[in-house]
Design a protein that fits this description.
With 261 residues, the protein is mainly α. It is built from 14 helices and no strands. The chain has a domain of 116 residues.
């Protein structure tokens, strides 16, 4: 039971704890629920009421609230895409993340990188705004070209899968969401990454191996040493803020350029 059930004799107690206390069991069964009947059928209003009740009660995660509140374009893209097997294959969708829709929340962030052509710092309120802003892209003032988005998103996915196919670099070295987000952003936003993809996969694996070791390889140039330390240091602490995300992004590009040269 809740810590503040309303009766100190019941607060924080479980049903088995009341064995032999018939008066308290009776009081529990006689608990009165407040029910409000809605005399209309407007999904948007109903969803807003549901959102407000659960947000105040703090029962659902923010992504679960979005799932209940929105049914437009952006959430449809997210919830359809997260079912694709590749997100499990790449380590984004795990059983633990699926249970509270954390995998869908992270996929939302990946989609926004492609949709907006930039990285964001993670913020639940800003993510709510994005879901609201991209709920209906059919309006005249919408800046979203669905065909362009789907094409860019598909290309970024394919490049991520190609990196993994080359040497398992994603599942080996990008297991943290922070690293995954950085590599995804580079694939989505940069047009001059090394080609062919096998070369990029090899350089990425070398760079991330040094990051995991906390130092560059012996004899490395100062620029590479800086990039390795910069990336590693910004995996700590508030790693989803725009500052650390931007610092990792710059470090990754600098490290790859150095390894390429």
């Amino acid at each position: 039971m809740a810590e503040d059930y309303g009766d100190v004799r019941l607060n924080s107690r479980r049903w088995p704890d009341l064995r032999g206390e018939s008066d308290l069991r009776t009081q529990f069964w006689n608990y009165k629920f407040v029910v409000e009947e809605l005399g209309f059928d407007e999904p948007s209003v109903v969803n807003n009421i549901f959102d407000r009740i659960n947000r105040n009660a703090r029962k659902l995660t923010r992504q679960e609230l979005r799932h209940a509140k929105y049914e437009g374009w952006f959430i449809s893209q997210v919830e359809s895409e997260i079912k694709a097997p590749l997100w499990k294959d790449l380590g984004v969708a795990t059983q633990a993340r699926e249970s509270r829709m954390a995998d869908s929340q992270f996929l939302s962030e990946l989609m926004l990188v492609v949709l907006e052509g930039k990285m964001r710092g993670f913020n639940q309120d800003a993510l709510d705004d994005a879901y609201a802003g991209y709920d209906d892209i059919s309006t005249a003032d919408s800046a979203v070209n669905e065909e362009d988005f789907l094409g860019s998103f598909s290309r970024t996915k394919q490049r991520m899968l190609s990196l993994e196919a080359a040497n398992s670099v994603v599942t080996t070295h990008c297991r943290t969401l922070a690293s995954f987000y950085t590599v995804w952003s580079a694939l989505a936003l940069e047009t001059e990454l090394p080609e062919p993809i096998e070369g990029l996969a090899s350089q990425l694996a070398e760079f991330m191996t040094m990051v995991e070791a906390g130092r560059a390889r012996e004899g490395a140039e100062a620029a590479l040493e800086w990039a390795v330390i910069q990336f590693a240091e910004n995996l700590r602490g508030a790693s989803t803020d725009i500052g650390p995300r931007g610092a990792r992004y710059d470090a990754l590009l600098a490290g790859l350029r150095n390894l390429q040269g």
